[in-house]
Design a protein that fits this description.
It is built from 8 helices and no strands. The protein starts with a helix and ends in a 6-residue tail after the last helix.
Length: 167
Amino acid sequence: MHRHARRVFGLCYRFTGNSHEAEDLSQEVFLKIYRSLASYRSAAGGFPTWLTSVTRNLLVDHYRRTKRDRLTDSIEDEMPRLEEKHSSTRTPFKHVADAELSDQVQHALSRLSPELREAVILRDLQGLEYNEIQEVLSVPEGTVKSRINRGRIELARILEQLGLRPA
């Protein structure tokens, strides 16, 4: 569990933008994994890919359950909260700048459609290969590549609207 906790939490956090909600969802994922471990078949793919599929399915279910609630939330409530990161090598200025950038990226991600957001997160933030994403999303590889490309383009457009340009 400890080996995969960071990956699961990161995926949950990027989808929800809320560290408390991500912690709760991560716990749900590991409970689900524990209950369904007997259904895992190594011949069908690696454990990390299966774990990501289970996490993704739980996040999709969560998204559907909370969709109505999100429609009534204020914009301030939707703003993501950064998980606390401490590092002795980062200056306070750098910490604030990183936090602000992370907030803006998280806000931009939240504005993507769920299909584009999950493809971008799985590829660019979780580092999955195309074939792993194909297994997780249960779509053809061409669809995976298309969603990633469209998601990146849309994310860049949103970030530019927020005043962020590539360095």
